[in-house]
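Reopening: structure tokens for the iron/sulfur cluster complex, inputs below.
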Amino acid sequence: MTQIRHDWTRAETLALFALPFNDLLFRAQQVHRERFDPNAVQVSTLLSIKTGACPEDCKYCPQSARYDTRLEREKLLELEQVIAQARRAREQGATRFCMGAAWRSPHDRDLPQVLAMVREVKALGLETCMTLGMLAPQQAQALAEAGLDYYNHNLDTSPEYYGEIITTRTYQDRLETLEHVRNAGMKVCCGGILGMGEALADRAGLLVQLANLSEHPESVPINQLVRVAGTPLENAEALDPFDFVRTIAVARIMMPASHVRLSAGREDMNEQTQALAFFAGANSIFYGERLLTTPNPEADADRRLFQRLGIHPEPAPAPAEMACRTAPQRGAERLWYEAAVGGG
Ligand code: SAM
Ligand code: DTB
Ligand code: SF4
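Re-run output (same inputs, fresh job):
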């Protein structure tokens, strides 16, 4: 069994990237099979619970108030709206519901409403995830106590390239939030974005940072930049799909027990590239027609793709690990297959 390591060097990582494509994918697939069902993919649905008007300057992001992206801003959603969307996601067969807010960090004033969202979504039998920006230790604690399973906070790129992309918060700020999340006992979802003009060394640098955290993130989203008109990166050069797949494979080899998420950007990817990404070790996706503010493939199209590839959705954690898993959710898993058969 491949060892879990936390002492990766950039040179070793670059050597993985330099392998011939077939050798790299073969190694990644071998590592993948040691710990995972190679035909199971975890499915999460995203919801933007607070959209736009963000004070940060992340150059990739349509939600920054600094760029004119024609995005309709929305205040924090009402609890009922969130519950309705979570139910819908569950009916479609998602097992995790991820809620994102365009904040630098949550205001304590908003926390009670956010905690209620965690409790209610969890009560539906879904795993819960949130991404709300930087967290203070007490905020992380409160989220954990409300039952939040995962917190998403990305490093985005290498420490060296980071300053080209974001100036309003530091890499160190991000690392500190990740530590608060860990200390509160939540699972960490942390990854980055490819296609922002970064060099290969920056991709390696990002993966070294992730793999050398004291514990690997349980979930590692690898996003392909969604180029949104009005953002400074709207004309970034398109990524070579093979380079995207290579990065997935290297992430899989460096973090053998983590779920690697084929994250944003699937709308711009053909099915063959997605299939290669699954072969390279990606075993999680965002499912449902919307990411936060940009389009994602239709649920029907994903069900058909899964069916054509013989992939099934990964079941939610067993009842022992997640006492509140309810009958309706098991029903939803059955529905997934029925819908897939009907839609195929
Ligand atoms: N505001 C919070 C924060 O930044 O921590 C949470 C929401 S933010 C939208 C979550 C993540 O989405 C970012 O860290 C970034 O990695 C990803 N993201 C945002 N815009 C993107 C885009 N255009 N393409 C790909 N990923 C994007
Ligand atoms: C992550 O790594 N990717 C997701 C999630 N975490 C929150 C967000 C992708 C956002 C893509 C642009 C948008 O839809 O606004
Ligand atoms: Fe704000 Fe998050 Fe977008 Fe950065 S990525 S501008 S913090 S919503």
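DSSP finds twelve helices and ten strands in the chain. Confidence is low (pLDDT under 50) at residues 323-331, 340-344. Marking as resolved unless the reporter disagrees.
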